Amino acid sequence: MSASLHHSLRVADLHTHPMLGVGYLGLGLRGGWPRWALRGPLRNLLGLVTPEQARRGGVDLLVFVIYQLPNPRRSYRAGLRRQLRRFEALCARYAGTLQHVRSSEEIERAWAGGKVAVLLALEGGHSIERHPEDLVWLRDKGLVYLTISHFIDNRLCGTATHPLRRRWGLSRRGREVVRLCDELGIVLDVTHSSDRARREIARLSRLPVIYSHTGLRRFVPLERMQTEADMRAVARDGGLVGQLLSPYFVSGRLHGDVDEVARNLEYMCEVMGPEHVAIGSDFDSGLNPPAPLRSIADYPLLTAAMQRRGLGRAAIEQIWSGSFLRLLRAIGR
User: Fold this and answer.
1) What does the alpha-carbon distance between residue 85 and residue 91 come to, in Å, rounded to a whole number?
2) What's 101's domain CATH number?
3) How many domains are there within the chain?
4) Considering only 53-62, 166-175, 266-275, which range has the smallest mean pLDDT?
5) Contacts for 280 with CB less than 8 Å, ≥ 6 apart
6) What value does the CA radius of gyration of the chain take, rounded to a whole number of Å?
7) At how many degrees (to 10) do helices 195-204 and 172-184 cross?
8) pLDDT tens for each residue of 26-50
């Protein structure tokens, strides 16, 4: 019953990192990787998100996230353009399965053609902090959201995980970027931002903000995670919260299972309503998946866990794609 339900739904994952393997290791998406690449810490950096696994897992929409490590000595602009070329080359190589889309209308066209729709996002505002105007051509390429900070503070805002724990808010340039994103229709993702920065971004932005891949402070008491107040504020403004699937971000433990993920999703639905809940797996980032998931091909098992938790079809449909599609339509994308 759960498998048939799952494959009758539109399934979206808001935050995936196949571009890490492609961008930094120069590998493709289908497999055939060298053995060394599948051992040790790299084993969760490759192969969790592929076209074939999307087919098997009934996945209809993926957000591919572009990321580059902070390095002030290198040109972020050149790195962005290089990553964009690789992203477009990937979509062209697997054109029979994947279709690069920029809007809700293009998503529907991709689905009508039997393809997996792929949207583009950028993680880490450091990549555009020197040249915020790069957001214009990124928007032309279909950029749907900007994760404005990452592990360390940048010139735009503070992060929840900076080693010095400075807890900065938005800078002057950060406020300019928020306004530019509003004009361009780029959603701001505050997943990694400090509590202060999150509040300031939410007050300033005219668009809903999102947490694309996160956990709950109720179960993992870290600033990186979200509180009930955070969730209610996001829902009030029309945004959404995507649950990260790796066990540490679900329960604070290194190992866990899909039933714990379903518990978090049920709690989120109770606090903010399922129309503001989503999945942002962070797969292919190096983080381990919850048992028994091995890749996005196993997503029917997560749907089954939601059913065991008592979530009905309407709520599961919202979690898997309804909340994200609603957001896209609300911002005119």
Assistant:
1) 10
2) 3.20.20.140
3) 1
4) 166-175
5) 13, 14, 15, 63, 191, 211, 212, 213, 214, 242, 243, 244
6) 18
7) 50
8) 666 555 555 655 555 556 666 799 9
